[in-house]
Amino acid sequence: MKTANDFSPVPSPQAVVSEQSRRHITIGLPAVAAAGERRFPLTPEGAGMLVEKGFTVKIEAGAGAPIHYPDNAYAREGARICDRSGVLGCDIVISLAPLSVGDIRKMRRGAMLLSMLAQCRFAKDSVMALLERSIMAIAIDLIEDQYGNTPFADILSEIDGRAAVAIASAPPRSRVASLRRYMSLSNIFTLAPTPTAPLAAAQALIPLPTITVSHGTTPATPPSRMPLP
Predict the structure, then answer these.
(1) Torsion of CA 229, 192, 204, 223, to 10 degrees
(2) Alpha carbons 67 and 84: distance in angstroms, whole number
(3) Phi, psi (degrees; rounded to nearest 5) at 88
(4) pTM of the predicted model, to two decimals?
(5) Which helix (H) or strand (E) holds 160?
């Protein structure tokens, strides 16, 4: 016959599971290595917004120099200043200019690359390196919203047009001020105007030639020109 002591609770040791902190997704922004490229995709304010959302932002030392932001401006917003290898080893790498084969091989296998993936910008060797590393490459300029718009491509086109008119119409001594005026696009996407902007502005201001139609020759109606700033 069982007594009351036979039904007493028996200690059963269990492994203690401590809740580990979730690993933050890392976003790396390498410095521009391509000649003539002066665009950089993140301002210090944009880096702060990503940090507040729980991301770990790593920026290569001196990467913000083309858009006139020092390293300490990013550090104050919570970004980490690292070397190029540390930046390329992040979960997500953002680089508008195409990365070299050597840089791609330093990326984490299975990582994500946000870049401008035009065929004329990425060489065949770079594409093969992306495939070998199983890297998910996304073309920023082809990203569409729910309405079919391309916000990043629209931003690039708008800033190129505004900067082209400003630079072409400004006196030589004030062109530096015109460049700085149109450098900042938003808190998360920034670029400096390209050297070809004055040429684009000059081409846009050339009057249209006379157009010959089947009923005779009629001078084309010139478009109304934008008022110069």
Answers:
(1) -50
(2) 18
(3) -70, -15
(4) 0.62
(5) helix 151-169
CB 104 within 8 A of CB 136: no
* Pair of tokens at residue 125: 């060797």
Token pair of 17 as six digits = 């599971």
Beta bridge partners of 216: 213
pLDDT digits (tens, 9 = 90+) for 8-24: 666 667 665 544 556 68
The single residue listed with the structure tokens 């002591």 is 5
Report phi then psi at 80, rounded to 5: -100, 130
Residue 89 φ/ψ, nearest 5 degrees: -90, 10
The rounded distance, in Å, linking the Cα atoms of 59 and 28 is: 6
pLDDT in tens, 85-115: 999 999 999 998 889 999 999 999 999 999 8
Tokens 């200043």 appear where? 81
Q: How far apart are CA 164 and CA 141, in angstroms?
A: 20
- The Cα-based distances of 162 to 62, 168, 207 in angstroms read 27, 10, 19
Q: Provide the phi-psi class of 103: left if phi over 0, else alpha when psi is between -120 and 50, else beta.
A: alpha
> Residue for token digits 């630079």?
167
